[in-house]
Specification:
The strands form two sheets. Strands 3-2-4-7-1-8-11-10-9 form a nine-stranded mixed β-sheet. The chain is built from 14 helices and eleven strands. The termini are close together. Helix 3 packs across helix 13. The chain has about 400 residues and is an alpha/beta fold. It has a single domain, classed as Peroxisomal Thiolase, Chain A, domain 1 (3-Layer(aba) Sandwich). The longest helix is centred in the first third of the chain and has 16 residues.
Length: about 400
Amino acid sequence: MGKKVAITGIGQTRTKLKRKDVNFPELMGEACRAALQDAGLSIDQIDCVVCSSSPEFFEGLSEPEMWATDFTFGVLKPHYRIQTGGTVGASTTIAGWYLATSGMYNNVLVVSGDKLTEGSVQKGLSMVYSPTMGRDFAAGAPSAVACQTRVYMNKYPQVSDEHFARIGTMMRRNALNNPHATLKLPQITEEMMLNMAWLSTPFRLLDSCPTSDAACAMILQSDENALANPRPRAWIQAVSTVADGVNYPDRDWSDPIALKKAARTCYEATGIKNPLEDLDVVEIYDAFTSQHLIWLEGLGLCEPGRAAPDLIDSGAIAMDGKLPVNPSGGVLSNNSIGGSAMIRQAEVALQIMNRAGDRQVPGAEIGLAHGWGGAIQFHTVMILSGEKEMEDSFRKRAARR
């Protein structure tokens, strides 16, 4: 058994659609300083740094982590870089968790982010596709996910544009309670969403996420150090990262087999039998409205094809529902790609710590954070818990000894 690991400090950058006041290293440094202050630690107490961003094309230079090393406090310390496309923020935390649970390091700083407003995001996303296996889908993220969505809608004809408008409106209203959301639309309605210009059918403009400049950093501490830290803690109970193929001939984009395996791995590790009942809060990587349905089913929260009626129409995932999903407003309200998947983890940790402010889910003790990336092929899942569940885990581990 490895060491237990807790998140004890969280830093998200100041909110503004375009951060013209900072460059990429300064943006990353802002998140790191905030996380250190939140955890009550100094940089001298950090054993190593795990740094990441999305494809280098977005920063306009090779190996951006080298440019940012001084700002991410990696000088004269072990300094790692992770790169897994859209899941990169979540993969960074998972890598930091492995380093801490192994006993190699006790205090790990993880940070991930991007300044997307300074590059051509869709051109970059088009170029990442395989020239042989993915040529037909080299049309940026909206068109690729539109293909995924059309396959899903053909399989489940009960899904309609109205469901996407309902989801998009719900997320933008949740974002009003999140000081870190970059897209806040107080007057948004389903009717407004349904009457916006087409983006890539079946998507209209607000069925897609914005382009944001943001970074997120967290402090991970192994059990002895975490327990000695008087700050609130969120314990990492299970992690999983699974990859599907790129675009093999019989691949069904509407069936997220990698997500299903990642979720199943984490549920088995934590003893979760019925995630809809056992979880208190979920943050999914919802770059597009339709993906709520596909990811919720992939997480086993309902049967295939039932997300629209059972979770959306019923209000089950609303803030006052059975299982609130994306109290933060999700990626639909803040998307830097590099920071987005880590922010999902950070938001669940804040919920577990009872520090989520106006977006707090009352009594949240167990939460799940999800990330996706690549050619809709990479998926990550992390389950976090509060002190009560952690104490039970310690007792079980002591009994096994």
